[in-house]
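re: ur question from earlier - yeah i can do the single chain one, its not a big deal. heres the input i used so u can compare w yours
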Amino acid sequence: MSFAALERRTPPLVALAVAVVAVSTSAILVRWSTAPSAVKALYRVVFTVGLLLPWALTRYRADFGRLRPADALVAGVTGVALAVHFAAWFESLVWTSVAASVTLVQSQPLFVAVGAWALLDERVTRRRAAGIVVAVAGMVAMSLGDLLSGVALTGQRPLYGNALAVLGAVAAAGYVLAGRSIRQRVSLVPYVTIVYTACAVTLLALAVWEGHALVGYPPREWLLFAAMAVGPGLFGHTVINWVLAHVDSSVVSVSLLGEPIGSTLLAVLLLPGEVPSLPTVVGGAVVLLGIAVTTTGDPADSPPGG
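and the output i got, formated as C-alpha cells:
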C-alpha cells in the first residue's frame, strides 16, 4: 500500500490516539537507558532520520528541489530548537520524577502563546492569559510543594530537573514558532527530514563537546535507541505532524495532555520509586488544566510530543 493510500484510509483521530500512546513511552525508554542524555537524544534522532531518509530521497526528491533556501534555513533553525528541547528534557529525567518532568515539558503551549504575542504581535485573549496564570501556579506547586510539605523527594535534584524540563518546554515553543509557517508551504516528509537532520547534527556537536563516547554501548542500549526512534519518534512526532494537517490544532494540543498521564502510569508500573507525591499530582492537574484552557480558547499550536 502506498503512503498516499495509507493517508486516505487512516482516520486522523485514530492516528492521533496512536501518537499519544507512542509519545507516552518516551520517558520510560529514556529512563531505562544508562547512556548520557546527549547520546540518547542523538541516536533517537539519528535512527529516525535513518528511517525517513531513503523514503524522503526516493519519493520526495522533487519536493526537495522546489524547497526555497529561506525555508530550508528556517527548518534548520527549527531543528536546533528541537535539539535543545531533547537535550534539556532527557537530562531533566535524570534529576526529577517522570510525572514532574513530562508535565512541565508539556507546558510549551504557554510559551508559544507568550512568544507569539512578543515576537509576532498576536493578541493574547483573556482566556489564554487566565490559562497561563493557572498553569504557572501549578508549575510552582509542583516544584515547591514537595519541599514545603516535607515529603520524600522523587529524584536526586528535583528543582534542577524541573528547571531543565521548563527549558525543554521553552525550546519546544521555539520549535513550534519557527516552523509553523513553513508547514503551510512544505510537505511533511521533506520538512521533518531537514528538521531531524539539523537536530541530529546539533546533538552530535553537543555530545562531542561534552566528551561522551559515541560507540561501544551494549546491545540493550542500541535497542532502546531504536525503540525511541520508532515509537516516540516515528509513530509519535511524525504522526503528530501529519495529524496537524487534518485535525484542528487545539484538539491535538488537548489530546497530547494525555502524555503526562500515560507516562506517569507507565512509570508507576515499570520504574521503581516513581509513585508521584500528592503535591506533584495536584500541581500537575492544575498545570494540565491551565494548558487546556490556554489551547482551547483559540486554535493554538500543539506540542511536538515527547
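The chain has a mean pLDDT of 82. not sure if urs matches, ping me
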